[in-house]
Design brief:
The protein is α+β, with helices and mostly antiparallel strands. The protein folds into three domains: about 60 residues, RNA-binding S4 domain (Structural Genomics Hypothetical 15.5 Kd Protein In mrcA-pckA Intergenic Region, Chain A); about 80 residues, 2-Layer Sandwich (Pseudouridine synthase), CATH 3.30.2350.10; about 140 residues, Pseudouridine synthase (2-Layer Sandwich), CATH 3.30.2350.10. Helices cover about 15% and strands about 25% of the residues. α1 packs across α2.
Length: about 325
């Protein structure tokens, strides 16, 4: 079988083979990785296996034959894009809330992939047939920055930065209530909720994957708070699960927060605000990109503030004025 070989050491904690592979290939879906295993493209300590669910003891060498990219079946669609930055190697796009990143069951059109393919047709096949060029993902109802690679070399370089936790990711989250401290860290493993398989949850270490999230308080309101959230790992729904675990779920989050959202919200108030990483290619400089909070987040904050001015505010309702003081300082 054609394709390139990659070898990775299994984590000391071991785990299911398909789940371990997710940590090495965060851009791939679990079902796609299971297909690689079932097709004999994965070996453990030199022995091929076709069973995605085998348990690793820890420390084994996992060899994966990555198939060459195939042309995407996704169709380009002339959907407007807000492009924050673009060069020959990548695009940084400000995704609106409500847009799915890549086609999936029930979302075959109108996705970010469809829009990107119309803007850059040469992306077809980059990174595989499902998500051409997509380096990382955001939930449908999370707005903000998404990085799209425009060639295979850039995709691999960017994925390595995300996997090695070299990318600084800062989100803005309007939450119900407030965290116990002005700044802190949540370290709690995340896995499938055993009672609700469509949800994620805090689970025992043996049944989940390590997850770490830092936060700091920007503004406080009467019944809400505005946080900067810095995920240090990239687990599914990580920020939403960890903030709910803290007792201050993301406002508008019907899955992990209140079923009847406060402030009349129609989506979770989570925004991928800032990214800092090294550009791939010839220009290897470190760059920081920001996406202004969308109107619905700004309006939600204004409603949360009401007649009570946010602490630390100096005429900036979002508390993002670099010349002002934050509540956590």
């Amino acid at each position: 079988m054609e394709g390139r070989l990659e070898a990775h050491p299994a984590p000391a904690s071991g785990g299911r083979l398909d789940q371990v592979l997710l940590g090495f290939f965060p851009d791939q879906s679990r079902s796609r990785l299971q297909q690689w295993i079932q097709r004999g493209q994965v070996a453990v300590d030199g022995t091929p296996t076709t069973k995605p669910g085998i348990r690793l003891r820890g420390g084994e060498t996992i060899t994966v034959r990555i198939p060459p990219p195939s042309p995407s079946g996704n169709l380009p669609e002339a959907i407007p894009l807000v492009i924050v930055f673009e060069n020959d190697d990548l695009m940084v796009v400000n995704k609106p809330a409500g847009m799915v990143v890549h086609p999936s069951a029930g979302h075959s059109t109108g996705t970010l992939v469809n829009a990107v393919l119309a803007h850059a047709p040469d992306l077809t096949g980059v990174g595989g047939e499902i998500r051409p060029g997509i380096v990382h993902r955001l939930d449908r109802d999370t707005s903000g920055l998404v990085v799209v690679a425009k060639n295979e070399d850039s995709l691999k370089a960017l994925q390595a930065q995300f996997q090695d936790r070299e990318v600084e990711k800062v989100y803005l989250a309007l939450v119900d209530g407030r965290p116990p401290d002005r700044r802190g860290r949540v370290e709690a493993p995340i896995g499938r909720d055993p009672r609700h398989r469509q949800r994620m949850g805090i689970v025992p270490a043996a049944k989940g994957r390590p997850a770490t999230t830092d936060y700091r308080l920007r503004q406080t309101y009467l019944q809400h708070a505005l946080l900067e959230v810095m995920p240090r790992t990239g687990r599914t729904h990580q920020i939403r699960v960890h903030l709910a675990f803290l007792g201050c779920p993301v406002a508008g989050d019907r899955v992990y927060g209140f079923r009847r959202p406060s402030l009349g919200l129609s989506r979770q108030m989570l925004h991928a605000w800032r990214l800092r990483f090294r550009l791939p290619g010839r220009d290897s400089s470190e760059r920081t990109f920001e996406a202004a909070p969308p109107d619905d987040l700004a309006q939600a904050i204004a409603r949360a503030a009401g007649s009570v001015p946010p602490l630390g505010s100096d005429g900036d309702p979002l508390g993002l004025d670099p010349g002002g003081r934050d509540d956590h300082d």
